[in-house]
Amino acid sequence: xxxxxxxxxxxxxxxxxxxxxxxxxxxxxxxxxxxxxxxxxxxxxxxxxxxxxxxxxxxxxxxxxxxxxxxxxxxxxxxxxxxxxxxxxxxxxxxxxxxxxxxxxxxxxxxxxxxxxxxxxxxxxxxxxxxxxxxxxxxxxxxxxxxxxxxxxxxxxxxxxxxxxxxxxxxxxxxxxxxxxxxxxxxxxxxxxxxxxxxxxxxxxxxxxxxxxxxxxxxxxxxxxxxxxxxxxxxxxxxxxxxxxxxxxxxxxxxxxxxxxx
Length: 262
Hints:
Helix content is 19%, strand content 51%. It is an alpha+beta fold.
């Protein structure tokens, strides 16, 4: 009987010690959580942006076209992050000029345009904090520098002409190239033309930029970015007939970015 009583008392003692330790652990975890929340509130008030990951997307207007992009950011420290980016744009030639047929309701024609040019970029940027927010209503400034690979997609520009009494689409490098240059024209290409004869030219690019984040809440990304791009391709890009072809392109851009931090 005494042995049984001793076992009961020992078990009750162990349960009591365990309960005290568990309660103490919960109290410590609760206190640590409260401190983290207080620190986050203080950072929010001071405008300090601290995060581990971010996801954002945006649209951009370049000096010779337009496009959109997606990026995923990984924080390395309070001041440095890595941005992994995928970007798709359309690049136009400076000599392009749209002409419409007043007697036919069809797509306008760009005389002499040889190919649509779509650069697709896959790369990485190092983002460095230059100036943090003075308050949650302030603006943070970062400098971005990076680059990567670019694939130049060339979609042949096809025009609608009359051949043997029927309307058909021809391109510059087809057997009917004379009709491509002389017509008679009935209209330009729709979005469905040219994809079967798509060509790809690889290259590399570099992109420095400055980003201004004006979002009121640090969890949200609301920013404007301005920068320049340099692209170098493995061979010259034929955009317009009778115009000099080149394999290096330089342009400036402005982008509107929205996203979220975690």
